[in-house]
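Subject: sequence -> structure tokens, single chain

Hey, anyone have a minute? Need the predicted structure for the following. Not urgent.
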Amino acid sequence: MISDPSFWTRARESQHVLRRRRYLHRSLELSRECGNGLEDLEVLIELEREGEDVLDDIRQQVRDLENRLSRAEMNTLLSGRHDACNAIVTIHPGAGGTESQDWAQMLLRMYLRWTEKQGYKAEIVDFQEGEEAGIKSATFLAQGDYGYGYLLSEIGVHRLVRISPYDAAARRHTSFASVFVSPEIDDSVEIVIDEKDLKIDTYRSSGSGGQHVNVTDSAVRITHLPTGIVVQCQNERSQHRNKDTAMKVLRAKLYDYEMEKRRKELDEVEDSKADIAWGSQIRSYVLHPYRLVKDHRTRIEIGDVDSVLDGGIGLFIEAYLKRRSREKSRRGRISGTESNNNDFKAV
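Reply:
Had a minute. Here:
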């Protein structure tokens, strides 16, 4: 198919095929690495039995093989329909003014550091500064294989407990911020947007100064009237480019809106935007009176808060994906049992 000259003229189809090809190639390569690593380990064990001093080599080989197998396991966990897509991440502070806005910016930095460590490309789509500090909202695009599959685990409310740097009395404060993640939808998925359903506003970009200040109305805000969904972009100097980016985000949010309606109709128990509520935090980050990050869904705890806030969220993501996989398997078994019971009754 790729050798067909007409293949490259079909941009949407070719992009999807090439992404799938790249994934399969890496999976096969990882499988070969695991097989070769196992063979090398067997050789080292045989040498050790013959009296060779290769114990350190065996330990290193076991560690390398464990790392490869862990990567292979993660690949099997990322099997959702849109797990392979790029991720659109939106962060909003909760009530609490400057405290929550500052916490929202800390979360933004944490995710940007994670994308950097993953080798992903991060593109800020929208950034609304707080009045005194922090942010009122931010949206960024994490571009990389399985960006959505990984960051899906971060959907929910994040809670921070600390001594406030904005409180002259140095009292302890609790702040909240919500994170939502949408897949960047492939163009091959049909999301029909009628121009008559859009309200498009332009305004002057805001910023901290210097090159980011725009003297023209290049920022774009798009309101989808039937759903009330609002997206905006002010990252580029060009109004045309800002509109294109905003439309991309709107497509993703409309897709998620439709999927959410289907999930509600089917009454499926899944992690989704509807699960976000200020009374149901997914994770707590405590800086005082002790230091601990705890995920309330998986019960994973990490004492090194600084490393987590510097993007070290891999352990939380892995635990969530394993939990999701177990729950899907359990629901499948229950569904199969119900089906068998129904068949029995029918007989």
